Amino acid sequence: MKSSIIWIFLLFALAIFNLAAAEPFSLMVGAGTTALIASLYGSYTYTKCLIYECCIPQWIDSNVTGMRAVMRESFYGQHLAQQTVPSAIQAHLSNEEPSKALVMSFHGWTGSGKNFLSKIIADHVYKKGIKSTYVNVFVATTHFPHKEQLSLYQDQLRSWIVGNLSACPHSLFIFDEVDKLPAKLLDTVKPFMDHYSEIHGVDPRKSIFLFLSNAGSEEIARRAWEYYDAGRPRESITLKEMEELLSMEAFNQGGLKSAELISNHMIDHFVPFFPLERRHVIECARDYLKTQSIRADSKMLEDIVELLPYFPKDNPVFSASGCRNVDKKADLIMQKDEDDYDKL
Ligand SMILES: *[C@@H]1O[C@H](CO)[C@@H](O)[C@H](O)[C@H]1NC(C)=O
Ligand SMILES: *[C@@H]1O[C@H](CO)[C@@H](O)[C@H](O)[C@H]1NC(C)=O
User: Fold this and answer.
1) Does 63 contact ligand 1 (Cβ within 6 A)?
2) Of 76, 185, 226, 236, which has the fewest Cβ atoms less than 10 A away?
């Protein structure tokens, strides 16, 4: 590797020398340069991949330790996601020959952290994070808005996935709003999540699929409420009881209706995202203010989370919007404080 960098420098030096020396001597050097240009071309891919993203370990360099740390520090109220997701990713990525793609289905209310966790994953698997060419995000209402165009979408999606996988087998596919996908669209994706070493000319087994949906969030919230009501910590809810609940009940809606995904065990992990409590939203507000270089006092934090809606009606302990919109409310409160200050 080092030697090819030296080669490239030599080449540049020679090329510049050659251009500058407009005399017969340059003819001699010219011949040498021609030979060297060939070798420069050989180094081209190498050089290109130093600057631009390529499907090589330098760019796909997973950092699961960092992923765990970030989840511990700034991802609130989701003990089951915390237990499951980093381990599943570590196991998948450290396996040279996985038998199938890693498929995880994230379920829960808006703002409970499904998108946030997807971003944390992308940021700790790819150097360029969520902006990586190898991270493909499909949003139901953006990419597939018209239910009647199913067959067009199926063809499109298949050719995208094939294209993406042939560009890089270590691709990450994130399907957002899965419950709003046209039913049966995911059947197109199914063979890519199966145990095939080759499908449409690509090997899908090293990739990762994430499905994000609200499906099952009622059941998840109900379970969280039952624990809360009984005075039991939510952290004692087990993955097993939630997986049973989710794999049975959550799939009467939209894209997940295609029961084959579930009955054929294509999904490796069902991950529930619980509705956040006020204390979790306070932490999100604190983190946001920190990004704005503001050390928050508890009065300010209370004022911010007070602006958000909570449920159930008779004992509103859960945030209806989770950590979403916390930034907007915080901006509002900061603005208000500033105005008050101006009035003094
Ligand atoms: C791993 O992730 C952590 C947390 O995001 C980050 O601080 C650290 O720099 C990362 N390490 C490497 C080698 O990229
Ligand atoms: C990969 O997927 C994206 C959608 O995320 C699509 O726009 C792109 O064309 C695909 N790439 C290839 C090479 O097919």
Assistant:
1) yes
2) 236
